[in-house]
Amino acid sequence: MDSLITAAARALAAGDALGALNRVALREDAPALALRGVAMAQLGDLVRARTLLKSAARAFSPRETVARARCVVAEAEIALVSRDLAWPAKALEAARATLEAHGDRANAAHARHLEVRRLLLIGRLDEADRKLGELDPAPLAPASRATHELAAAAIAIRRLHTKKARAALARAEQAARQAGIPALLAEVDSASRILTTPAARRIARGEERLLLVEDVEALLASKALVVDACRHVVRDAHAEVPLATRPVLFALARALGEAWPGDVPRGTLVARAFGAKLADQSHRARLRVEVGRLRTLLRTVAGVTATKRGFALAPRRAREVVVLSRPVEAPHAAVLALLADGESWSSSALALALGVSQRTAQRALDELAALAKVQSLGRGRARRWLTPPVPAFTTTLLLPLRF
Q1: What is the fold of 333-398?
Q2: Helix, strand, coil proportions of the chain in percent (round to 5)?
Q3: What is the pLDDT of residues 50-80, one digit of tens each?
Q4: What is the pTM for the complete model shown?
């Protein structure tokens, strides 16, 4: 490898994309094309970067398997940044295996981190945690250690383990300072702000209060009966009842939780659960059926008792009932949570991350666009959706989970 290629590679490792381009901008050999592609990616020109990396992969001979694998890893990172979640993950896994087999542990670790970040975006926390745990960050370079700790912090925050998250962020900041890369320091700072930004609302006895992530963790660890409108479950200290696939039952549970220790009139429950302004006999009959189903599902944590005017929630073991809600109620909050990262998303990537059909994601985007909450760029398959980051609250608890 000649001196210009070596100097350009060192400049890229230090985050100096312009310095790298100054050395290889006019060269068309395979190593120079690859470095130019990485430099253009750091500068934000992802389309040009992907083209250069594909040209570099073709220019390397079939025997240069390590160089080809590095191009695949760089292309995978561009796909992740551009939220192309349908990019073939098997190609990245194969490239990582090739790099490990040839002793390139630094780039193999980078490939593993990309795998983990993709899994985090689509809500597969258990798999992301397992893959991250297979990697020892100690021998890695400072920049890679910072990336590793950022991924660990993201997993801890999503699981509401704030002590682990703070420790991981502290290690990430230390590694980022050792690396001396401003963009990496900014990423650590952005991740740290999540812990100091309101993450949810606590509704109890008619009063509301904003909670930080650590407050949410403390609430879920308390002896209260929590009607969790972020995860759509009802839980106490001993049991948890998921209602994510039962929206009518959860609407009833939330209405009862917000009114506790009082009861809720039947007409109010009909309006909350079915959207009907006036309750007729058919609505009342349906309400009785749904309340019976809710009573059966909640029997381990609470009872649902009938009163003269409606129904009331009676916790089995807990001394209080608390509703945990999103900090800001908005239609299609999960879509907004994903778009709030400031990146541009395709409807197919949103559908994959949310676990819904692409048509469902498209309908949500169209409704949000009509409300001027999102905007689109491009047309057809190149169409991307984005929205400015929401500074008022963290989106951690809005994102879907799939274990």
Answers
A1: Arc Repressor Mutant, subunit A (1.10.10)
A2: 60, 10, 30
A3: 999 999 999 999 899 999 999 999 999 998 8
A4: 0.82
